[in-house]
Amino acid sequence: MASHTLIFNAHSSSRYSLAALVGSVESDRRMTELSVEAPVEISDKGVERCVANGPTFLAYSVMSTQTDRVYKELKWVRERFGDSVTIIGGGPHASARPLDLLENGFDYAVVGEGERIFPELLWCLMNNKDPLEIPGVIGEATLECPQPRDLEMVNLDDYPPFALGMNIVGPVEVTRGCPYSCKFCCTPFLTGGRVRNRSIDTIVRWLTEAVEKSGFNRTWFLSPNALSYGGRGHKAEPDKLEGLLKAVAKIEGLEEIFFGSFPSEVRPEFVTKPILDMMRGYVANETLQIGLQSSSNRVLKLANRHHTVEEGLAAIARASDAGFVPHVDMIFGLPGETKKELHESIDLCYTLADMGAKTHGHVFMPLPGSAYENKPPGKLDAESRKLLGELSRKKLLTGSWSLQESLAESLSSR
Ligand code: SF4
Prior knowledge:
This protein is α/β, with parallel strands linked by helices and 414 residues long. The protein has helices spanning 15-26, 44-53, 67-81, 92-96, 98-103, 114-126, 187-191, 200-214, 238-249, 273-280, 297-302, 309-321, 339-354, 382-393, 401-413; strands at residues 4-8, 34-37, 56-61, 85-90, 108-110, 137-138, 172-173, 175-176, 196-197, 218-222, 256-258, 287-293, 325-332, 358-363, 397-398. Iron/sulfur cluster is lined by residues 178, 180-182, 185, 187-188, 224-225, 267.
């Protein structure tokens, strides 16, 4: 029987991180004495059973929008189990606000990418070594917290995209890092401006194994800008993109490939006719997720978006002509947006519907780690809510825009 247990909370908000991090633990040969569980809910009986068996670690990947839920649960775990459980937090909130995690009951916070640091931290704890010697691990005695950019970035090829041993699967992250600096986004802070691509060989190897071991018959991919695959992020590399799709399409047993659809997104200026025509030959997705974000060139410029509304609309029209349903990301209430511009963005969603597109609506949230983290939260007025509600009812608008309005308020009040 294993001497230690890791309980990794499998909440839906962190399922992709869970798959990658449990995958990195599974592939670490030093972890033979560690038993891993990934419950959706942390239960009294579950923790009690693990604690009775030996040293127990409880891990969370924490999004900034999920802290209320996580901290409440932690308070309960601490009251019930005291120090017999070691609690570790990673994810976007740990990178941006590590001390906030410690103040709310975590023993350790992991700053930066977890694939390398997390197994290392577990190994130190299992062998009575000091985890605070690992760059990126923050604890009570830490004097100075690094930022993710100060730490060594991982090579995606060195880690599995998911945890096949425990059958915790998700999209294959093909690209990490983004050279753009949109001010509402925390991706550049978390993963840096240098783009790293997972190699085609590694992607094919993991997917082949997933077909054989887990009965995968479809796959989807994760990327900040899917059409930039293979390059440095500022321009498309159509040959490398086709090389990836062609190689994945050849995997026996894999029937469907979803690329450029949620949870990935594409930037408008990468949506060209030749690329769309090429993609059509390989992908099964009906939708293409395109980031437009606002109907105002002024607001896009303020947000450092580096494309215009006109480029966005042209990309949407091209995607539609190529047989995709454009699924357009829009953010309402971006900093500096006037009431008139908000209403124009909502009007644009109706225009998009007439073009055969759907809107994925968001309300601006001041995310820690983003350049806009100290800006006021996005707010809708009654008229905007009514118009967006109407589009939702007609199934022309998706997204958690309504919930995000209250999350944005809560983030801002902290
Ligand atoms: S919104 Fe997209 S393009 Fe902009 S910084 Fe974030 S990941 Fe990069």
